[in-house]
What we know:
Structural class: mainly beta
Order of helices and strands: EEEEHEEHEE
Strand content: 35-45%
Distance between the termini: 55 Å
Mean pLDDT: 85
Radius of gyration: 14 Å
Number of strands: 8
Amino acid sequence: MLEEWDPLRERKLFEKVLSAGIELKPGDRVRLCPRARADIFDMALAGKIATIASIEQDYENRIHVAVTVDDDPGNDLGKDGKPGHRFFFALDEVEVVEREAK
C-alpha cells in the first residue's frame, strides 16, 4: 500500500538564518524589496513593512521567509498560515527594519 504524501509533514522550518551577514528569525520586522517583479503582488508589496512568520526550505532546497504584512487587516489569518495573507520572499528580497535597543 502506498503511503499518502503530505507536503506539510516534510516541510523544513528554520529557527534562524543568515542573509548577507544579518541574522533573520521569526518575529523580525522587514521591509519587502521584491527583485523579480514577477506578479502584481511584487509591485503592491514593494516597500511594505512585514513580520517574518517562518523561515522555510522549499522542495528545490531554496530558503524563503514567509511574512505577514503589518498593515494587512487580515494579517492574523497569515499568522495562522492561511493563504492570501502570508507571502514568501527570497532572503535577498527583505531588509531588516532597524531593531529597537532593549
